[in-house]
Amino acid sequence: MSDVQLAAEPGPLEFDPGRAALVVIDMQRDFLEPGGFGETLGNDVSLLQAAVGPCRVALEAARRAGMLVIHTREGHRPDLSDAPPAKLARGAPSRRIGDPGPMGRILVRGEPGHDIVAALYPEPGEVVLDKPGKGAFHQTDLAQILANGGIDTLLVCGVTTEVCVHTTIREGNDRGYRCVAIGDACASYFPEFHRVGLEMIKAQGGIFGWVSDAQSFAAALSAAEAAA
Question: What pTM was estimated for this model as a whole?
Fold first, then answer.
């Protein structure tokens, strides 16, 4: 496949799909599904569910193009040995990391709520990266995976825009990756945070990266495939 010309802000981006990865951040049941941990905290999970359709468009396009696909899940070891005390102390009593939740222990690996929603479930061979923090590079082998694949461009989607997506893009930018937020495939419990989070990425000529959308991403890959 030839290089892709992606419509984006603050300007178009050309990249090689063979050197790009789609990173799907934390599309987990506890955050997105009714009755999950996110909803028990008083959040409107439909705001996050709005990203599922665009995420699926981006995911299917990346799969057709043979791109590297990486799924992340935020969560901790069952003994919580990788969870900093300051993180464990946050939240209301009985609603903290490791406590029983509607879908098992909250943010604990292996529990039902920790897993990825069915509509975006990883296919065999796709990377599933368990991370103990907000950013996908922190205490994971993501950097090694990207280096091994010769990756120079990250297309990032998922939840939430202003926390785990933003942190991952900032980390990627500092490591020299060209980072694109697929804006409509990201979401937040706070719509204003989502809007401002995307504005921050593309401000000042793209201080952290670019912002595009799922249909533009899929169309760019299709056009490049047709031209090959």
Answer: 0.96
